[in-house]
Write a structure and sequence with these properties.
By secondary structure, this protein is of the alpha/beta class. It has 15 helices and six strands. It has a six-stranded parallel beta sheet with strand order 3-2-1-4-5-6, sandwiched between helices. Bound molecules: nicotinate mononucleotide and 5,6-dimethylbenzimidazole. It is an enzyme of class 2 (transferase).
């Protein structure tokens, strides 16, 4: 069996008994029932995912997948494609937004080249998993072959399997790829059938004229490729991206290994959508970090049935929102593990 199929068949639903036990444990803490709101949901779900009522949050890793996009030739981004490579070096030097915010929550950033159009040689610190030097222009034909899409999915799966072996407790997704809001919008349009104009936005900050062009390019790409909405691999290969595939694989791999996975913004959520089309059970293993400024993001989150943890008007990507949300999820887990019970503290219980 292929690694992808093996991973898909390993994913199990969460144990309702464990969810109930975690909530019971939270209900014995010195607070009115439910008074810690969504922190209780984070703790309950994290415990059930990790299969423990005392789950660790010690090792936190954010994978930032970098890749290029042929569709950039159509003028869909405010920045030149060289920025993808330049930002990879910035991540490795620790100077990017995600480095700062990951440090803030004591998470490690691991940078993965899954498809950058650049020869990095043996750059220290870079996880070299290049599948291709970027995708092809999906306005003219398929972005990838099915084989390339599977290879990139399996990069993500292997990283998740490595996390299991390394005792990583919580994973965050992130990405860097000039042009990648275009395939992300194409994916939600293809899967949902919504008009492209409803799900397409300004990415790095394009003007009105470029936005109209971006919408036209995506419409053309969907018309040329006719991705089958019932075949996630077809959608991913025809109008997706290599980093989006890596993220989808990472999410599938985390679900298969029972590792909670925190999904960043618009592009990461496109990866989560593909993962959930492959196996809807992955929805139980993911946390939606935040609500991105990109207008199509809420349709993605609705499809996943996921409520975003934060709404900070972020639109940077990289894993920045995931880093911040990891801090709050960890806070919830600390409540489960560290807060005193009514009995321990000698506090009188109310009526419930
Ligand atoms: O995460 C988000 O919601 C998000 C929203 C807009 C832009 N981005 C980042 O900006 C880049 C893509 O923007 P664009 O305009 O080049 O498609 C890519 O590197 C993403 O990390 C990220
Ligand atoms: C500078 C810059 C940093 C980024 N990080 C993620 N996407 C980005 C896009 C740009 C343009």
């Amino acid at each position: 069996m292929s690694l992808l199929n093996e991973t898909l068949s390993k994913i199990q639903p969460l144990d309702p008994d464990l969810l109930a036990k975690a909530q019971q444990k939270l209900d014995n803490k010195t607070k009115p029932l439910g008074a810690l709101g969504r922190l209780e949901e984070f703790a309950r779900r994290y415990a059930a995912i990790s299969n423990s009522l005392e789950p660790s949050t010690w090792k936190k890793v954010i994978f930032t997948f970098a890749a290029d996009h042929g569709v950039v030739a159509e003028g869909v981004s405010a920045f030149p494609k060289e920025v993808t490579v330049q930002m990879v070096y910035n991540f490795l030097q620790g100077g990017a937004g995600v480095n700062v915010l990951a440090n803030h929550v004591r998470a490690e950033v691991l940078v993965v080249d899954v498809g950058v159009d650049h020869d990095f040689g043996d750059t220290p610190g870079l996880i070299a998993k290049k599948v291709a030097r970027g995708t092809r222009n999906f306005a003219k034909g398929p972005a990838m072959t099915r084989e390339e899409a599977v290879a990139a999915l399996e990069v993500g799966i292997e990283l998740a399997n490595g996390c299991r072996a390394d005792g990583v407790a919580m994973v965050g997704t992130g990405e860097m790829g000039i042009g990648n809001t275009t395939p992300s919008a194409a994916i939600i349009a293809a899967l949902s059938g919504r008009p492209v104009a409803e799900v397409t936005h300004r990415g790095t900050g394009i003007n009105d004229q470029s936005l109209a062009n971006k919408i036209r390019v995506i419409e053309e790409g969907l018309a040329v490729n006719r991705p089958d909405p019932h075949d996630p691999l077809d959608v991913l290969a025809k109008v997706g991206g290599l980093e989006i595939a890596g993220i989808a694989g990472l999410i599938l791999g985390c679900a298969a290994n029972r590792i909670p996975v925190v999904v960043d913004g618009f592009i990461s959520t496109a990866g989560a959508l593909i993962a959930a089309e492959f196996n809807p059970l992955v929805k139980e293993y993911l946390f939606a970090a935040h609500q991105s400024v990109e207008i199509g993001h809420r349709f993605m989150l609705d499809r996943l049935g996921a409520a975003p943890i934060l709404d900070l008007q972020l639109r940077l990507g990289e894993g920045t929102g995931a880093a911040l949300a990891m801090g709050l999820i960890e806070a919830g887990v600390k409540i489960l593990k560290e807060m005193a019970t009514f009995e321990e503290a000698g506090v009188a219980e109310g009526e419930h």
